[in-house]
Write a structure and sequence with these properties.
With 171 residues, the protein is α+β, with helices and mostly antiparallel strands. Helix content is 35%, strand content 12%.
Length: 171
């Protein structure tokens, strides 16, 4: 016959079924929470890009106020008619935002602090495109934009719907 203290020792701890139930509950909660966290993380990345694009738009306006030009020495509010005048990295001196290539009259920058135009959250440079196709499926509607290639990183005259842009001028 078991004594009372021996009987108590026997029931200390959790049974296998109790442990399996706890593991199952943790698994179910993880299956619900992890996708929700990923959605929140992705949304915060897009919000960050929108904020940077607004800052870049302000920087382009300041560049225009001082030099009467946009990045790449483009004329303000004019949509180009051909490809080839894009700036794929706004840290480039040809953009005139962080540094100048010496061709911007009355340049008084930098218009954003050095190093503040980093890559987007997906590792791509922000760009300036004076001939951006807003409607790649249709006949084409063109605009001058600053932007990010978005989560898929596909860009440089490849227009897809995950690109995030700020329109500076359009046809």
């Amino acid at each position: 016959m078991l004594t009372r203290s021996e009987n108590k020792k026997r029931y200390l701890g959790f049974s296998l079924i109790e442990i399996l139930i706890v593991i199952a509950i943790i698994g179910i909660l993880s299956a619900i929470i992890i996708p929700a966290l990923n959605l929140v993380r992705e949304k915060s990345k897009k919000t960050e890009v929108q904020n940077v694009l607004r800052q870049l738009r302000t920087s382009v306006s300041l560049l225009e106020d001082d030099s009467a030009e946009w990045p790449g020495n483009r004329q303000p509010n004019v949509v180009d008619t051909v490809e080839g005048n894009e700036i794929w990295d706004l840290n480039d001196p040809n953009a005139g935002i962080i540094a100048t290539n010496g061709t911007f009259p009355n340049w008084a920058g930098p218009y954003m602090s050095i190093g503040s135009v980093k890559v987007d959250p997906w590792g791509n440079n922000y760009f300036f495109d004076p001939y951006y196709n807003l409607d790649p499926v249709g006949p084409g509607r063109w605009a001058v934009v600053i932007g990010s290639f978005g989560p898929n990183g596909v860009g440089q005259n490849v227009y897809d719907d995950d690109n995030m842009i700020e329109i500076l001028a359009s046809e």
